[in-house]
Automatic annotation (TrEMBL):
PANTHER family: NADPH-DEPENDENT ALDEHYDE REDUCTASE-LIKE PROTEIN, CHLOROPLASTIC-RELATED, RE15974P. InterPro entries: NAD(P)-bd_dom_sf, Sc_DH/Rdtase_CS, SDR_fam. Belongs to the short-chain dehydrogenases/reductases (SDR) family. Keywords: Oxidoreductase. The keyword Cell inner membrane does not apply. This is Short-chain dehydrogenase. It holds the Pfam family adh_short_C2. One of its GO terms (molecular function) is oxidoreductase activity, acting on CH-OH group of donors. CDD domains: SDR_c.
Length: 259
């Protein structure tokens, strides 16, 4: 079916706290594609895990997107709170034109089977799995009728195949994959397609020289990924041409293989 998304052009992108982040790259690309944006962020997370960011990164990303002609709402959100996902979706849908979710938020603190605390385990699952489920649920419940009828609703969630020595992160991302596949099946009648996207190794400020060299050596494309690589695929999946792809866990990673 040919779909028309011109009447429904707002996308909620979560996890847009840093200019170097994948979420920021996706937001800017979607602004260039004609989408209006609701961007959620949580500076406290970036500070807690020591990720590089400027004092006004969310505002700076919003201004770049507005420069492309997009309407942008900035929505601070602590997705560890189970009340917040529905509130966030409602805030993104104030004009009744929310047509897509792009889930870039994450909790990621390395630990293994022997070193993971219950607190860390619960925090990872509350953010990476539970919040994603609740966001998708709220989106399906509020999706505008014209989006539903056009089969134009889209969900894209960023996932990962991390496993050993990153246990709560990797296992909660595995749960996310199952949630997204379930959404593709259960919410098809709501006009929603849903896919998980694994972007592989992308240096957004967390790599040192040794890590860059190691990951580049494991990638047949012989380079690390960029936020733009991921944004290009997200843009396609949100387009009318991408609507036939659903229920997939897609690897867009230059051939990267976990060893």
């Amino acid at each position: 079916m040919e779909t028309d998304t011109t009447v429904a052009r707002t996308v909620l992108v979560t996890g847009v706290g840093r200019k170097r982040g994948i979420g920021a790259g996706i937001a800017l690309h979607l602004a260039q594609e004609g989408w209006d944006l609701a961007l959620s962020f949580l500076p406290e997370y970036d500070d807690r895990v020591g990720l590089e960011r400027g004092p006004r990164d969310p505002e700076d990303v919003a201004e770049l997107c507005r420069g492309e002609g997009a309407r942008v709402d900035l929505l601070p959100a602590n997705l560890a709170d189970p009340q917040v996902p529905a509130q966030l979706v409602a805030a993104a849908n104030t004009r009744g034109d929310l047509a897509a979710l792009v889930l870039c938020h994450t909790e990621s603190v390395d630990s293994s089977i022997l070193t993971t605390s219950v607190e860390s385990w619960d925090r990872h699952y509350s953010v990476n799995a539970r919040a994603s489920w609740l966001l998708i649920k709220a989106f399906a419940e509020l999706i505008p009728p014209h989006v539903r009828e056009a089969q134009a609703g889209r969900v894209v969630a960023l996932t990962s195949d991390h496993t050993a020595h990153n246990l709560p992160y990797g296992s909660s991302k595995g749960a996310l994959d199952r949630i997204v596949v379930a959404a593709a099946i259960e919410l098809a009648g709501h006009g929603i397609s849903a896919n998980a996207l694994n972007p592989g190794p992308i240096d957004t400020g967390w790599m040192d020289d040794d890590v860059r060299a190691s990951l580049t050596g494991q990638t047949p494309a012989r380079r690390l990924g960029t936020p733009q690589d991921t944004a290009d695929l997200v843009g396609f999946l949100l387009s009318p041409a991408g609507g036939w792809i659903t229920g997939q866990v897609l690897h867009s990673n230059g051939g990267f293989a976990v060893k």
